[in-house]
Amino acid sequence: MNNGATFLIQTLFDLYIMAVILRIWMQLARVDYYNPFSQFIVKITGPVLNPLRRLFPSIGRFDIAAAFLALALMALKFFILVHMQLGQFPYSIIDLLIASVRNVLTLTLQLMFWILIIRAILSWFSQGRNPIEFVFAQLTEPMLAPIRRIIPPIGGLDLSVLVLIIIVQFVRISIS
């Protein structure tokens, strides 16, 4: 089995699934639609999501079509990788579905982790004028605000990001 091909398949699928997850998360957080980063995510996910929306309408702000797409892409990724490795697919559809849900959740938590890390690093250098930083703030602020109510900034040092990173990593490790 070619390790290069495996790496390429995993990377391409994971990057696109992350874009779909970001699309769901941005809709739930009501991120500024006209932000250039938001527009990028909309443009790369739109061609696949728009036809799916005819089959799977949204429920409130939750995009069922995007959730289905993320799960379907994860299942396809597993199918391709296992088939490449074994020459067959020895697992049931239920096993594939469970693995897909679990791995989409893990990928979502990894995405949250990296967005929190990038947001923390950008806060040291940036003045908040970067469009990506603005989107990351809109995505993470609903989760950070409750933590700040419990643990207020100490001497100007905001520990809420660190606490959320620890929680995200704990949950990620627990479901892995």
TrEMBL record:
Q: Which GO terms describe its cellular component?
A: membrane
Report if keyword Hydrolase is assigned: no
Taxonomy, superkingdom? Bacteria
The protein's matches in InterPro entries, at most eight in alphabetical order, are given as: CCB3/YggT
- What residue ranges are annotated as transmembrane? 7-26, 64-83, 104-125, 150-171
Pfam families from the entry? CCB3_YggT
For this UniProt record, give its keywords in alphabetical order, as a comma-separated list: Membrane, Transmembrane, Transmembrane helix
What is the similarity comment for this entry? Belongs to the YggT family.
**Sorted alphabetically, which PANTHER family does this protein's record hold?**
PROTEIN COFACTOR ASSEMBLY OF COMPLEX C SUBUNIT B CCB3, CHLOROPLASTIC-RELATED, YLMG HOMOLOG PROTEIN 2, CHLOROPLASTIC
The identity of this protein, by name, is YggT family protein
Organism, per UniProt?
Answer: Aliidiomarina sanyensis
